[in-house]
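Help wanted!
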Amino acid sequence: MLESINARTGMAHGASWADSTAQDIDLAARQAQSVASDFARATPGLRAELLRSMGQRLLSAREALVALADRETGLGLPRLNGELDRTVYQLEQFALALDQGAVHLLLDEPAVAGAAPVGRPRMTRIRVPLGPVAVFAASNFPFAFSVAGGDTASALAAGCPVIVKAHPAHPALSLALAEQVQAAVAQCGLPAAVFQLVQGAGIAVGVRLVQAPAVAAVAFTGSLQAGRALADLAAARSRPIPFFGELGSVNPLIVLPSALASGAAERAAALAQSITLGAGQFCTSPGVILVPQGEPGDGFVHALAGQLSQLQPHGMLTAGIRRNFESGVDAWRHAGGAQVLAGLEGNAAATPAATLVQVSAADYLRQPALQHEVFGPAALVVRTQAMNEMLEVLAAIGGTLTATIWGIDGDAAQVTEEVHALVHRATEVAGRVLFAGVPTGVAVTAAQQHGGPYPASTAPATTSVGLAAMDRFLRPVALQDAPDWLIQRY
Amino acid sequence: MLESINARTGMAHGASWADSTAQDIDLAARQAQSVASDFARATPGLRAELLRSMGQRLLSAREALVALADRETGLGLPRLNGELDRTVYQLEQFALALDQGAVHLLLDEPAVAGAAPVGRPRMTRIRVPLGPVAVFAASNFPFAFSVAGGDTASALAAGCPVIVKAHPAHPALSLALAEQVQAAVAQCGLPAAVFQLVQGAGIAVGVRLVQAPAVAAVAFTGSLQAGRALADLAAARSRPIPFFGELGSVNPLIVLPSALASGAAERAAALAQSITLGAGQFCTSPGVILVPQGEPGDGFVHALAGQLSQLQPHGMLTAGIRRNFESGVDAWRHAGGAQVLAGLEGNAAATPAATLVQVSAADYLRQPALQHEVFGPAALVVRTQAMNEMLEVLAAIGGTLTATIWGIDGDAAQVTEEVHALVHRATEVAGRVLFAGVPTGVAVTAAQQHGGPYPASTAPATTSVGLAAMDRFLRPVALQDAPDWLIQRY
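Answered by r_m:
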């Protein structure tokens, strides 16, 4: 059974809802499949209209939606209003991509006369929708990665019906958002099964959805444990389906000596803000900060600890997330060689304490328990003696959504081979490599890549943010000797 | 233990080789990983040079290689010389793509001033190699999909070291090809671990290779049973890796009434050639022919059976493939409602008989055993009463590499809604849809797509033929606020 919990008080509010049954889920999947061919053949223009209609409805219902989101998540009105704007912008960007018309027709090659291998028929490369997509909503972005968020928008843009599995931490908001999407679907004259919602407090709903024969792909944002379990189910089906899971991420940030030479105080302040943004509940929250041993590094770490001590993160999304955070930072505090620089106490308070713990690179590397993500307003400072240790720490972290390197000069002549090796290593472990700024905040654009090597993503060649998110739900088809009228339809 | 078997006599010839040990395989994977970063940073120009050097060496050694291939596969000199040409052309096409420079840098977006979501930093989308790729060679294309074939070429082009698991049906050829590739690697001044070969008669070698922690991706061409088993192992690793498996395919060919109106005899002759090409040992061999009930269809089927009866396919690749073929056609012959039109006998002969069996669509749909691929020179004619039965047969076949539709008019005004539905269904089940010609013969070009919905492929969004085959081994990375000198390196 699902209840709407006030994130600030922990008290249930209003109605409760029964979990979707196995029959509900199978029916939703079959209905989605029954409309998949028609929706695939809907014009890109109609799909753009659907996305824009969704955006308009979110804007019109903003006040009620944001209030509901605030009650169920405790993320605060400024953040939630900004996130709603971002969600509407995201819908509009996919609509624009559809308008521009490069979604389905990729390449049209004329026939070449002569014998093979040089000679060949006319070949036209197009992309077709995969079919019904199951979207698992995230808890930490109740608009941008939930019912009407990036996964839903990109799947609908691609021409795939969507079945959202609502996140149990914001059930009332999920239903309110689903009503808006359903109204947009109806307004565009599309069948209702183009968008459906299922819900449940336990794992049974998600398991059934991933196993439903009619489901063609899954998009998931959540924990490593849940994501891996569902990915394994998707791979074990008699017809395996792609599982696009965005799981945990450590997001290392490397401070090179040149970044300590000037502006270190401003950098420390920006980093403290990034670590505590949304109480650290961002998949791109910087979790490990690599700082060279020595005086300039000491000063930077001291400034960072001071900034963090002055910040009071708001409450966390759920009691469960809070418990995991406390046990995660406890493990850091009690690790060999650990030194607590901020957040000594706070376990009992209503809100979590911004926490900074420091270890040497040697201590970090010999304790695998330190290499896991701690989801919340905390970071681990790892002090390194040489560039080689930075490479080793990056390798130990393995897959991550982002890696940030501060202090690389814009002047190529000053770049050493060591720096080249560091940048290369960063591209080996991360989906996005930053050379300025902080990793929180992910632009919705064509070049974006949100998804790194496992375990950051179960499908590292794909992104869940940005226009390329659509690529996940489209499959290339080569048309050979196709008539002109057919090619013109793509 | 591996032996070189003469495909025509079944007798062992010359030396035998021990299977690679678990230690050999682990060492190969670690050595590949140890050179992966350096090879990833090799210039695209150097990789193009490697591919061209491989091609030159294949041409220089043509006579010996083709003779060896003919002894171990029995495919005949004309076919094998043509396949060698195609393999060299394939290497050259990837080299050209590297020359043209669009492999790594995908998109460079300038910063946009202002607040998010509109404002954003400079974002540059690049692609980086995945790391060591395990390539499982196919038996049926000893050049084009073996040691120096498409998977190896596309992985090296992408900047990934390759470990080939040789196909046990042509071990002597595999070693001779590997020597040529190794010489090319040395000539280009690259470390030897950029290309390695392992071998074995049993499944242990492949299992160990897929499970080796240092392997980052697998490319496989082979049977559904072996491919699915290895795909499951790849998904079950502690760090799952992508498994690009090209498995079985039925390749339906649909004859619409308008294709029977004229030129039916020529079409029947072309189809008979396609069914028996290479003794039917092509993954794109047409296995199910859909023909409308009635007189014109009867005439076409009669002509096809007549053509097939006059063709004598050459011997098959291995005794095991021959056994599977005979048991497959036996199941067809004894299915309910089956009528044998060609290939009544032949089980005991040295070479297989070209076989044609006919059933009604109703009989086909009610007998799932008929819906599996039979690898060899045989096709099943399915007689349909209405377009709707054609849609149902395509749905029953499910994933396939190709679907061919004969008889669609070039004039859009004459195209019915039924034809639109048929074309759409074909794009739903196939990776390539043909509107003329036969599906055997796969052009190496940018628009090509060789890989359809499961079970045709374990990764239906990817292709194993054509320039997009490289995409399998590259992972996108977004660079945020990167300095110019770095972007210029991609």
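OP: Thanks! One thing I noticed: The mean pLDDT of chain A is 96.
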